[in-house]
Amino acid sequence: MEIAGEKIYPIGLGTWHMGDDPAKKTAELKALTAGLAQTTPDAKVAVDTAEMYGEGNAEKLVGAALRTIKRDSIYLISKVYPWHASKKQLPQSLDASLKRLNTDYLDLYLLHWPGDIPLEETVVAMESAKQAGKIRNWGVSNFDVTELKALAKIPAGKNCVANEVLYNLGSRGIEFDLLPYMKENKLPLIAYSPVAQGDSLGNQFLADEVLQSLAQKHQCTIFQLLLAWAIRHDNTLAIPQSSNQQHVLANFAAAKISLTEAEWELIATHYPAPTKKQPLAVL
């Protein structure tokens, strides 16, 4: 997939909930390092973090992992709190994130969700950070069609290069109008919680006989199947989070799973696409 002309591997590294527990730090660092090592010149590995995650601890963890690899060989994404997205505060938050991440620039900086600070002001702050060389590009997260249309009316709003939202087999609401709008406007999707947080959101994917049968046929796990499903559309980056090195490598392998059209349709009969507008789901 591509974001602003940068070729990126369609499965990346999410870091939500990482950095919270000191006892897990070694395992988390191993998992991130193993994932970053999968990067290639033709498809950079993306790692997605935020100042919110562990109140900066996830960024520190990513910063430690970045010491094991050439910085420009990976695609680094972080996010700013909505209440920090002002002309005055955003540069300070960005500098703090860069320090924790042990880098001098981000490939992509996202507004974490819509807030009370006027979008116009946030866009100006993002553009200033871009001109200063501290971010290559900027985007948004948890924006529905209404917010994206409002953004498009702002001068320089068209410079938004991605929208990160919840998307998995059990949460298909964006397919009704948000995903079509994004495709029409060539706005890539970053899908968070693509395996529904390890099937912990009540979907019971692991008990589904259709998914079990398809996973067996393709010699993969149900989680790998869910990832393959999430990236079946062009220009989608799925960012599952795992603190287990083997799970991370299995996640990356999911990009190579290829299902037939009939198999995709079989899955859709059990988990149908939306037939009406739904409120944007947020975790």
Automatic annotation (TrEMBL):
InterPro entries: AKR, NAD(P)_OxRdtase_dom_sf, NADP_OxRdtase_dom. The record marks 79 as: Lowers pKa of active site Tyr. Residues 10-270 form the NADP-dependent oxidoreductase domain. The active site is at 53 (proton donor). One of its GO terms (molecular function) is oxidoreductase activity. Substrate binds at residue 112. It holds the Pfam family Aldo_ket_red. This is Aldo/keto reductase.
